[in-house]
Amino acid sequence: MRPGDLERVQSLPLFQDAAPETFRVATAGAHVQRFPAHTMLLLEGDPVDFLYVLLDGQAELHGTWNDHETVLAILRPVSTFILAAVVLDTVALMSARTLERCELLMIPGDAIRTAMRLDARFAQAVSRDLAGGYRGLVRTIKNHKLRGGVERLANYLLALRASDNAGSTVRLHFEKRILASLLGMTPENLSRAFAALHDHGVTVEGSLVHIAKPGALEALAKPDPLIDNHAPRGGDILIDADAEIWSSEWNRATSR
Amino acid sequence: MRPGDLERVQSLPLFQDAAPETFRVATAGAHVQRFPAHTMLLLEGDPVDFLYVLLDGQAELHGTWNDHETVLAILRPVSTFILAAVVLDTVALMSARTLERCELLMIPGDAIRTAMRLDARFAQAVSRDLAGGYRGLVRTIKNHKLRGGVERLANYLLALRASDNAGSTVRLHFEKRILASLLGMTPENLSRAFAALHDHGVTVEGSLVHIAKPGALEALAKPDPLIDNHAPRGGDILIDADAEIWSSEWNRATSR
DNA sequence: CGCGCATTTGAGGACTGTCAACTTCCGTGG
DNA sequence: CCACGGAAGTTGACAGTCCTCAAATGCGCG
């Protein structure tokens, strides 16, 4: 583990509230491992023995059925994943695979469950993390059931703009075919969705997307704080303490 | 509160592990309230002040965007809902409405959060509950992204058969228009989906659905334990300890 | 009994998936 | 450094699915 990695892990919302002793015990049995690109880390249906912490690189969570595959989330450092399966000590519902060379910290599931028993503050942090993940999934389902493909793409681009920079050009962090699957469409239809956004000021050059008229795009996307997690909050309410936990599963992936 | 209600609440996975004192304090500040049918209990975007426990009746969780509405879950007694928002002390992402006359126990959110701080076992139970809900949502997303409408209906019927009885006739517990929304389609298309299942031995009479050839239906539905939570597990593995928590949010609603 | 709403059925259109051909991009190896 | 091969991305044609609108039917409650 490189110097600073431990600090990065400890600063995760999942751990920053834990007692130092809890953190020490949990990471004592952990080990860091490197994986090449396009490597399966975990297969859905397999028992989950570790909580994974992505320290470097990009990874993908996906699900399979009947010879079809769909991307459920893109993970970027630093984030944890499959916490839910670890808490319940059961099999994974999602597969995980690296998109590029990755560095992972693997914490034994036993250590996590033991820590929850001994450290109430850690158990609370786990609850908050899972609650944040849960709410992320609720947003995702609303996104998919209520919006069409073009609208999902438009909101995705606005979310990228809000999170990565303030400029009018955003960069897609992974291949379009993966973005297509994440957004619930085929690569062909993603192309057409980008084409449809052409009329609203969106131009594409490789992985660079230029948003010429953010206003026009927003008019089409109709972002909603109850779906998108980046949308402008209603200005009349002062109590805006939506301190959602976003460090672990479903990071900035699905809809932000 | 009727006699026995408290016992029913205490026997929920969320509470059965908690210290008696924890349970006493939490329910001390709680109150039971009755609501007529078709009443809004909670509006998405509103701060959540209570953890709700549905003691009697049926309720629905739904989301809204751009003048469209989609049903996210059907709740049946005894189950809790909006635990995630309570844990994070934030606004609701889903609205809740009664489908019929309902009896609800409302536990102040403060009491829940305090109990988590004081009782590590309760905090663990909350984590398990949220982890179970999280995994239910993952199943839902896979269900929606990987399957078509007819397949979703077929699996829903098989899930009903597995949970409610062992017979070949199942009863829909709510209106078809709500089922349609839950399954992510229009009422018109649900009708056609039922018609499509005609060829596979499914006949409909009001809210009664007869499954003449379960084998044929399964061949179409291709149920999967990693999506449906009722599907036959692979017989070669003995370790089948998937003790998922299913008592709270997302009960038998979405995909079981 | 009658009204209102849920459900069904039909027709048409919009959206999405599939297949195939073509172009572009990128990493490899000469 | 360039040429090449393979994969990614795009475009077009077509089919299948799903949504919308409209009208007819059925059901339940007042």
What labels describe this entry?
homodimer, 256 residues, alpha+beta, Jelly Rolls, Arc Repressor Mutant, subunit A, 4-stranded antiparallel beta sheet, disordered C terminus, DNA-binding
Topology at a glance:
The structure is a homodimer of 256-residue chains.
Chain A: H1 5-10, H2 13-16, H3 20-28, E1 31-35, E2 40-42, E3 50-56, E4 59-65, E5 68-75, E6 79-81, H4 83-88, E7 95-98, E8 102-108, H5 109-118, H6 120-146, H7 149-164, E9 169-171, H8 176-182, H9 187-198, E10 202-205, E11 208-211, H10 214-221, H11 225-228
Antiparallel strand pairs in A: 1-8, 2-7, 3-6, 3-8, 4-5, 4-7, 9-11, 10-11
Helix pairs in contact in A: 3-5, 5-6, 7-9, 7-10
The structure holds a DNA duplex (30 and 30 nucleotides).
Descriptive account of the structure:
The structure is a homodimer of 256-residue chains. The first copy, chain A, has 256 residues and is of the alpha+beta class. Chain A contains 11 helices and 11 strands. Chain A has helices at 5-10, 13-16, 20-28, 83-88, 109-118, 120-146, 149-164, 176-182, 187-198, 214-221, 225-228; strands at residues 31-35, 40-42, 50-56, 59-65, 68-75, 79-81, 95-98, 102-108, 169-171, 202-205, 208-211. In chain A, the strands form 3 sheets. Chain A has a 4-stranded antiparallel beta sheet. A 4-stranded antiparallel beta sheet of chain A has the order 2-7-4-5. Chain A has a 3-stranded antiparallel beta sheet with strand order 9-11-10. In chain A, strand 10 and strand 11 (208-211) form a beta hairpin. Chain A is globular and about 55 Å long. The structure holds a DNA duplex (30 and 30 nucleotides).
